[in-house]
Amino acid sequence: MATNKQGLTQQLWDFFCSLRLSIFLLIGLALVSIIGTVIPQGPQSEYLATISETKIRLYSSLGFFDMYHSWWFILLLYLLTLNLICCSIKRLPRVWKVVAEPVLIMDEAFEKTLTMVKDVKIKGSATELKDRITAFLKAEFAEPVVTEQGEEFHLFAQKSPWCRLGVYVVHLSIIVIFIGALIGSLFGYKAYVNIPEGGGASQVRSSGGKTINLGYEVRCEKFSVSFYDTGAPKEFKSILSVYENGQPVAGYQQVPIIVNDPLTYKGITFYQSSYGQSDEGVWYYLTVRNRNGGEPVKLKARQGERVALPGGAFLSVMEATMDVRPFMRGFDGPGAQVEFTPAGGSPKPFVILSEKYESLNAQHGDNLIITFDGMDQKFYTGLQVAKDPGVWVVWLGCFLMVVGICMAFFMSHKRVWARVSDKGVTLGGSASKNPTGFELSFDELVEKLNKYK
Amino acid sequence: MSSSSLFNITMTAYMVSTCIFFGFLASRSKGVGLAGTYAALFGFVIQTVAIGMRWKESYDMGHGHAPLSNLFESVVFFTWTIVMIFLFIDFKYKYHAIGFFVMPFALFGMAWAQLSLDSGIEPLVPALQSNWLVYHVITCFLGYAAFAVACGISIMYLIREQMEQERHGAEAGGMLSLFPSIRVLDDLNYKAIMIGFPLLTLGIVTGAAWANYAWGTYWSWDPKETWSLIVWFVYAAFLHARITRGWIGRKAAILSVIGFAATIFCYLGVNLLLSGLHSYGR
To answer: Disulfide: which of A59, A417, A420, B84 matches A64 by Cβ 3.0-4.6 Å?
Structure first.
């Protein structure tokens, strides 16, 4: 029983240490990730309407609508993490030994394992040669470690041994990134808030639907949008101010934010995301005149407010815009959707425009002609709000990953041994990467040593 | 001269280069191979000037930005990086035959951009007004280009291996003698991916940094992000497969071709077929 149990643990350990598992998981993750790019993520009713009931049930039971957070996708990521931890634990000690306890002596047996070995005939006593070769290696390669053994001296010099750890730095970086992501999902949030010009917000709504207190107030002083001549948007800009307990916070007043230039206060960042027209607290301006003559009357109204007109009729402005072009082909200027209630009659909806289209305005309103003069247009700014205390951990992980990859790909652990005796010098060399390239520099080194004497 | 006419010269140079490389395979004359490389180099220099001029032209129009903002500009830049990586490998290893398998990618890119894409210089929409645009696009496309070269080399590998098998292992003559040996091709494939993988990683990291700076989310599983990760997974699998026995040679070459197919989908397929944040392809 005991051996069986041990056998099982061993098997499990071997399973998680295997490179086959790594390759399987990497290719598997690549394949299943495709699903979530083809099926729209999140509840999208437009898409749901195009597929059958059975498919919807199947997809949602498999978690395809939020695939990257489904239990099985997370499980694959955990397995990959476990796999790379096990692989590293298994292989790191061996590599560490090469780095920390290098082979200092090139004996006969070790010499046979090296592909690059050259004898150099130099005259001199062993001690004298040792000093010369030490100076030579220090100048041309790296400072050697000298070991005396019997009649011989053994020299060992190496360059960038730590680059062998590059792979493990990359593995560590992946774990660091996951930790950063975990911190972000536990202690951070993504939220959204709309603030009308002149208004403020001290609460935001998270993507999970929760209300979050900021602990201070953000006010939108002004929002503006500008366009290029082509009609494409050029800049969305909000001027924000931060207030704490009703008091303005110094240094955070009238801060302009645009897309790609957010505002951060107390760990919470506000990003310019969208905008819209705000109908709250807007004044609509109207002119009313009687068809039978008389002085025109100027009126102003709030949205939905019933305004008494001369002669006993009522008017409410339902919605309005400063530019009707997108809604009415061939017309421009301000326009309003209104509801007109004649004295004792039932409400009639119609559209009124500016003075320019007086003949159109004259088609409605019984004995009155109502003109829309405009409005004091106000915007609201749509801000993406994010708090992510884990983001710096993620950047640390990314930094480690890039450094680790460069160590692993572009650097090579180069080693040179020299055995010095009265008979002469034998040089041996090895490199962890690009052996052909190192062979050239090794030959060059030998050539230089030949000239050195 | 405007950048547009220089791009036409570039396209012609790449076409000439591709034809010369074809002639090289037929004639097996070393001088012809060298001529192909010089034609590619000529096109590359002209293209570099043209990209610089387009950059300047955008400033003259009053809304200057790096020419990396729409599909036309990205295809031109992709072509430029492919030729750059090819020339680097050609000058280093001197296997001109690779040109015939890589330059068609560049020719196809230039022809597509010049003949059917909108080449107008548009001002940058607010989302793209950031220095991250330059870092992100340059790293990504250099990575893509290295993968393109690796793919060309892998195709050579597969052809050579197939033909050697048909001849029952006899030393190849004819056109094949211009191909580097199977071992060298396998090694070059690996080397090209070793250039591409760190660049792709940097491209993903700069993209994440930019997304975090612009939207407050460094990763949102947007189709483009996900596909870049898929490409990263494929090449990570490739690199791990190298150190296990049995995954060199043919399997590695196939994986490299699959990796480049995923790269192309990540670059174009996502924009043209799926929806998401990188909508310049529409």
So the answer is: A59
